[in-house]
Amino acid sequence: MLVTTSGDCSARVWRTSDWTLMRELRHENQRWVWDAAFTLDSRYLFTGSSDSYARLWDLEKGTLERQYCGHQKPITALAFRDQAA
């Protein structure tokens, strides 16, 4: 899979075997999405955006699972360290 982030307030997840769109992730209050990171099992995706939130998305369902707040300015980069059990 490939994820792209954009100033159109979305993150898009693409299937790299045929380059088709698998999922578009968008939240009503979300602004420019700057960065994204997959979990180790690729079931979830974290995004960071200009509205100062990091979000955790369930890629299978396409649902927002959790929002993380605390920054006063846009989140322009993120990193996630996931460990295998």
Automatic annotation (TrEMBL):
GO biological process, one term: regulation of actin cytoskeleton organization
Compartment(s): Cytoplasm
One CC-aspect GO term: TORC1 complex
Repeat among keywords: yes
WD repeat boundaries on the chain: 26-67
Assembly and oligomerization: Part of TORC1 complex. Part of the TORC2 complex.
Described purpose of this protein according to its UniProt entry: Subunit of TORC1 and TORC2, which regulate cell growth and survival in response to nutrient and hormonal signals.
Protein name: Target of rapamycin complex subunit lst8
Protein source organism: Pararge aegeria aegeria
The organism's taxonomic lineage, starting at the top: Eukaryota, Metazoa, Ecdysozoa, Arthropoda, Hexapoda
The encoding gene: jg6917
